[in-house]
Fold this sequence. Notes:
The chain is mainly α. The protein has helices at residues 2-10, 14-34, 41-49, 52-67, 82-112, 128-131, 136-165, 168-188, 223-247.
Amino acid sequence: MKGYLAEKLKAIPVWRWILLEILFLCTTALLADYYYGNGSLLIHVADILNDPITICYYFLMGILLINVDFVERGPALRQGEMHSIASYFVGLAVTCLIILAMFLSTAFLMTALKTGNGFRNVWMTANALSQQGISPLGAVGLSALFLFLRIFALSILATLFCIWGKHLLFGMIGVAGITILDRFFYEIFNIQSPLGITPLEHTRIVFTEAMRPILPGDARVSYVSSILYWVIGIAVLALLTGWLLSRRKSRQAAPREERCI
């Protein structure tokens, strides 16, 4: 498995990683300015990680640049071999961790240049997280966990679309379309109160409003529910994708940038 993973990672062009880091530098610099205040570095980073634009668009860049054609690059999956398919999912998870680590380190760097309050692990004011006993460091860690689960799920979904449509474009359009629907679900269907069903609601660690303003009694769905939401979703997507990978039929070779597998 180690050799397979190494070959898969080596097959990703270096320029993609460089471009992604440049994008992360630009976006985190803008967000660090937007969230600049009297809070500590940890609070600012937690704010950045829970920004809907960060969640829906900035990490989508990582998926489109790195993972959308991951199934195509490097050594091919052997027909119907479950070990090879499992290795593929492990490799996909590794790239998701790298993308998240790149964003986190960049967010900490750019935020550190803006605030002089260091790593103080205390909230400046009482909020829903402090009432649950979650510290700023805990908020960053919990946010990172849900972001990883989201990126991994969407990366598997991109693979699923790519295999099903037999073209890279299907993977790109599919995952981008799902992301946009996720971001504007309540606006599109004119739903006043959140239903706790969108990926965005289960990625942010704070309450996500729908059409109406936030009311005093509004609360986020439990974190345990969000973990189950992502674990079940990833399991279903992985089973479907694994089934397609194991059942795929050989076909005529297509240009590398146009075929998915």
